[in-house]
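Protein in question quoted for reference:
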Amino acid sequence: MPTKPSHHALILGGTRDARQLAEALATAGLRVTYALHAPTGAVATPAGCSLHTGSFGGESGLADFIETRAVTLWINALHPHAALMQARTVALAPRLGLPFYRLERPLWRPTSSDRWHQHISVEALIEEVANTKPGAGPSVGLRSQTDAQPNTRDQTKPKRVAAAHRLLLTVGPQSLADFLPLAAPPVKARLFTRRFDTNRGSEFDALVTWIDGLPDPSRDAETALIESYQITALVTKNSGGPRPAKLDAAAAFGLPVFLLSPPQVEGPAYTRWPDIRDAVLAVTDLR
């Protein structure tokens, strides 16, 4: 008869790395609860784990959850921009006296072909967009600056400059309201944002153009989307991890990218989930 795992790990998730970590620890023999504070749409339970979704009820609620569920160690593998929960875990960890780990995703870094404008606040980002004149945007039928074939006739034609920005806004549903001033003066941009479910919020319908679907891992697909909607700039969050195709597509068209940097979190952290997995297994004598 198999013995019950002696350790219960709580993983505060929100990234692909967090899910991989949860499944790896469950496979290694730990009891694992994978928690998501504000998921978008239905969430599949990581293999071998329990799933908790929704609020814990503040800092005291999180502490009660850890005590009543007999959690023996916990891991902050939150999305880098989950500022409230990030701060809550950092404040609570010393008081609980349990092994506590933090998984930190390395942020994206610009390449020589990127036109990035990075900011630490939404207000500063919006101000720079307001001070940046919209460009021409992609020409219909032109895949990218690097892929396009020379065309003498096109070169003699002046490109039509957009009257206002047409922004591809990929900041997540929880943050969308913070960026809606981009649609108002002085920017008065037209906003395009993706959502794969129907829980969009009618208050946004008059201010954004919805694009059905998820981010595509293919640069060609993201390039086609930018071209189809005549996007003049990308507004997104620097969430770290693997570089997404949308950044490569924007670079291919020479579009400016306005990025919001995540809040800084103090204290030691692991930057790869295999390392934090090994550290946890060493503490629990399962490695």
Summary: The longest strand covers residues 31-36. The longest helix spans residues 83-96. Residues 8-105+264-283 form a domain with the Rossmann fold fold (CATH 3.40.50.720).
